[in-house]
Design a protein that fits this description.
The complex is a heterodimer of chains A (about 180) and B (about 130).
Chain A: H1 2-20, H2 26-33, H3 39-60, E1 71-72, H4 73-90, H5 94-102, H6 108-131, E2 138-140, H7 144-148, H8 152-172
Antiparallel strand pairs in A: 1-2
Helix pairs in contact in A: 3-8, 5-6
Chain B: H1 10-28, H2 35-49, H3 51-56, H4 59-62, H5 69-87, H6 98-104, H7 108-129
Classes of the chains: A mainly alpha (about 180), B mainly alpha (about 130).
Chain lengths: ~180, ~130
C-alpha cells in the first residue's frame, strides 16, 4: 500500500514541475521537434544531468541499484522511429499526455485513447516481435562507461560540459 | 513567480524534477516511466470484455493488468499538473492547440484522428524500443 502512495506523491511532484516548466503543451513539444523552441530540451537536459549525478552518487555509496535496459538495435531503432513519428503527430508523449489533460488541454485525451489502443495492439503482436525485430542486434545491458571502459564520473563530467555548451548556445540563439 | 503564464525557468524546473527522480529512486528504488502503465491499463480494460483472452497473451504476464507504483505515478502526473495550473491561473480548457489550429484549422475530428493515430504509433514504438 505504502509503495502506491509514494508513486502517487512522486507523480504529483513530477506533474507539478512539468506544468511549471511549461513543457506539457503541444506548442512546446512541436516547438522542440521543429527546432524553434528548446524549452523542453532545456528542462529534460537539466533533469538528466541532475539525475545522472544523483543516481551515480547513490550507486557509488551502495544505496541504489542501477536499472540498465538491454540494448536491442532492432527494437531500439524501429521502435524509436515509430515513437518519434507518433510523438510528432500527437504532440504529447505518454507521460506528458496525462499532464496536458490535467491543465485542460483535452485533445491529449484522444492521444491517451490511441496509446491504450497501441498498447493493446502491441500485446497482440508481441509473440511475432519476439521472434523477429527483438532478436536483431542484442547486446545486453550496455552503458557508455562500460563500452568505453572508463570511470563513470568521466562520462558524467563530459555530459555536464556538453550540456552547459548546448544551453549557452540556446541562450545565445534565443531558442 | 507562479501567478502568470510564463511559468518557471525551465532549467530550474527541470533540475528540481531531477531531484524528485533521484529522491524517488533512493526512497523506493523505483525508476520513473510511463508507457508500461498504458499496457497495464489496456489489459484492465480488455479484462472487462474477455478475461480469458488477456490471460492467454504473454505480454500481459510481463506487464500484468494491475495497479502498481508506476500506474499511481502516471495518475499523479495528471493531479500534479491540475494543482499547478489551477493555482497559477494557467489551467485552460482547450480542444485545439494554437500551433495546430494555425496550420490545420479548428476541426476537432481532424485533430482527434491525428492525435489518436499518433498515440497508437508512439506507444507501439515505445514498447518495441523497450521504453
Amino acid at each position: 500500500m505504502n509503495i502506491l502512495i509514494y508513486g502517487l506523491i512522486t507523480g504529483i511532484l513530477f506533474g507539478f514541475l512539468l506544468q511549471k516548466g511549461r513543457v506539457l503543451r503541444y506548442d512546446k513539444q512541436l516547438g522542440a521537434l521543429r527546432l524553434i523552441d528548446m524549452t523542453i530540451v532545456k528542462f529534460m537536459g537539466c533533469t538528466i544531468l541532475v539525475g545522472m549525478v544523483g543516481i551515480y552518487l547513490l550507486s557509488d555509496l551502495g544505496m541504489v541499484k542501477l536499472s540498465i535496459k538491454a540494448t536491442n538495435l532492432g527494437g531500439n531503432i524501429i521502435g524509436g522511429l515509430m515513437f518519434g513519428l507518433g510523438w510528432g503527430l500527437l504532440g504529447y508523449c505518454p507521460g506528458t499526455s496525462m499532464g496536458a489533460l490535467g491543465e485542460g488541454r483535452w485533445d491529449a485525451g484522444w492521444g491517451i485513447l490511441g496509446m491504450l489502443a497501441g498498447a493493446a495492439v502491441y500485446a497482440e503482436v508481441y509473440p511475432v516481435m519476439k521472434k523477429t525485430v527483438l532478436t536483431w542486434g542484442n547486446f545486453g545491458s550496455l552503458t557508455v562507461p562500460s563500452v568505453l571502459n572508463i570511470n563513470h564520473w568521466v562520462v558524467v563530467a563530459a555530459f555536464i560540459l556538453a550540456g552547459i555548451f548546448l544551453f549557452v548556445w540556446f541562450e545565445k540563439k534565443n531558442l | 513567480m507562479n501567478s502568470n503564464d510564463k511559468g518557471w525557468n525551465p532549467y530550474l524546473a527541470g533540475a528540481l524534477t531531477g531531484v524528485v527522480i533521484v529522491m524517488s529512486v533512493w526512497i523506493t528504488g523505483k525508476y520513473a516511466g510511463a508507457s508500461t502503465s498504458f499496457v497495464r491499463s489496456a489489459g484492465m480494460i480488455e479484462k472487462i470484455f474477455s478475461a480469458e483472452h488477456v490471460a492467454k497473451l504473454e505480454y500481459f504476464s510481463k506487464a500484468s493488468p494491475i495497479i502498481e507504483w508506476q500506474w499511481m505515478f502516471v495518475v499523479g502526473i495528471l493531479i500534479g499538473s491540475l494543482i499547478s495550473s489551477v493555482t497559477s491561473g494557467s489551467f485552460k480548457i482547450q480542444a485545439i492547440p494554437s500551433m495546430w489550429g494555425n496550420k490545420f484549422g479548428l476541426s476537432i475530428g481532424k485533430r482527434a484522428g491525428t492525435a489518436f493515430t499518433g498515440g497508437l504509433v508512439a506507444l507501439f514504438g515505445a514498447r518495441l524500443a523497450g521504453g
